[in-house]
Amino acid sequence: xxxxxxxxxxxxxxxxxxxxxxxxxxxxxxxxxxxxxxxxxxxxxxxxxxxxxxxxxxxxxxxxxxxxxxxxxxxxxxxxxxxxxxxxxxxxxxxxxxxxxxxxxxxxxxxxxxxxxxxxxxxxxxxxxxxxxxxxxxxxxxxxxxxxxxxxxxxxxxxxxxxxxxxxxxxxxxxxxxxxxxxxxxxxxxxxxxxxxxxxxxxxxxxxxxxxxxxxxxxxxxxxxxxxxxxxxxxxxxxxxxxxxxxxxxxxxxxxxxxxxxxxxxxxxxxxxxxxxx
Length: 278
Prior knowledge:
The chain is of the alpha/beta class. It is built from nine helices and seven strands. It has helices at 21-31, 52-62, 77-87, 107-110, 131-148, 164-169, 179-189, 214-232, 248-276, and strands at 4-14, 36-46, 66-71, 92-96, 119-124, 159-163, 194-199.
């Protein structure tokens, strides 16, 4: 018996990954038959300008298990994932970046937990990124934990397996990099159970990363405010999670605590400043 029963859709969002995409797809086609009963690979070309779309089409012609979704213009990481999720037909949906920083064979580490959890989220055991991105990631994870109560150590790790019906029931709207936060926050509100498993992470050898650019960071900051307001009124689907739904009141309480802490710290700093100038 194979480790994972049923069908799986592997979604690969790709933006200007001409130097990496074919290797990622070939590796996936090599290892997935030994891990899952049936699978498809859904490549989402997010308005690439380097030939990624043409490579994706050739790979789809070579193997019927590969399908391609095209965005005429670059719409963002979240939009690419949402298009891939919409096209996915599997009982399970997995997504992974197409930059060769993950090995699809590590799905074997997640496989034992797939039957028992709604989301099996990878976390990078040793993240192989520049130190600046590691600092951004650490600050981001703490901030998202405080704002949205996401109890996951590596929110943006692009190596996750999700129940297909859960993904299709959640109303995802973020177009940018905050889509992982939105996915986990809304899943928790719906009572989804989440298990974390360590996976390997490799240095990017080809192509240019976009996740740490100033434009992406500013977009993410704007989306944080949008997501917080959206979640305040979000009505999660019922009966799609195995666990206890997270109430809306928990978000309000976290906000009250954060505002209180910020105001208290500001008041303390102001008092110290004026006392020091007397």
